[in-house]
Specification:
This is Type-4 uracil-DNA glycosylase. This protein is α/β, with parallel strands linked by helices and 211 residues long. The chain has a single domain, classed as Uracil-DNA Glycosylase, subunit E (3-Layer(aba) Sandwich).
Length: 211
């Protein structure tokens, strides 16, 4: 079927001595799907290698693609504010994305790059990187930021609207997962204050679970 990819498994170090740093270096060479062809760089996770909380977003955005760092654009700044209001220090959490390359379309030839959600095939192809991060960081709580991250972690039938803010179990992993709204969705919401308050409430649940 068109759109199926080789996947990242063959690029993920698996020698028993892997760390966040070695994974971050290896991801730069990943050709598991076609997104590397247009993206500036792969964007790996960032944060303490033994963080109790791991935040998983969808994919890098335009600014993240240019800097190589996750959640540094407008959504990242809003996330920082929400974490602070929930009593969580951004410096204490590990932040990453389900897909490591930016998927976009051009507004016009040579024009602004507009975000496009990754396809299911691209999410599946990239999933070995996320699995490796979870294994190495070993967080107590994983936060799925948005529907794409939720499906990547919980399976393709996951619905954010049905499970937002709940304490869930990662399939096959036994870890705690809490799904909430992606910060970029807060920025687009007509009732931004209410949606932001919901994000903060969910992050307070995370704070309590993380201890």
């Amino acid at each position: 079927m068109a759109g199926r990819f080789e996947g990242a498994a063959g690029y993920v170090p698996n020698d028993g001595r892997r760390t966040v740093r070695t994974l971050g270096r290896a991801v730069e060479k990943c050709r598991g799907c076609d997104l590397y062809k247009e993206a500036t760089t792969a964007v790996f996770g960032d944060g303490p290698p033994d963080a109790a909380v791991m935040l998983v977003g969808e994919q890098p955005g335009d600014q993240e693609d240019r800097t190589g760092e996750p959640f540094v654009g407008p959504a990242g700044r809003l996330l920082d504010k929400a974490l602070a209001e929930a009593g969580i220090d951004r410096a204490d959490v590990y932040v990453t994305n389900a897909v490591k390359h930016f998927r976009f379309r051009r507004e016009s030839p040579g024009g602004k790059r507009l975000h496009q959600a990754p396809t299911l095939s691209q999410m599946v192809a990239c999933h070995p990187w996320l699995e490796a991060e979870i294994d190495v960081v070993d967080p107590r709580v994983i936060v799925a930021l948005g529907a794409t991250a939720g499906r990547s972690l919980m399976g393709r039938d996951f619905r954010l609207t049905q499970h937002r803010g709940e304490e869930l179990a990662l399939p096959g992993g036994g870890r705690v997962v809490v799904a909430t709204t992606h910060p970029s969705a807060v920025l687009r919401a007509p009732d931004r204050d209410a949606v932001f308050a919901g994000l903060v409430d969910d992050l307070r649940v995370v704070c309590a679970l993380a201890g």
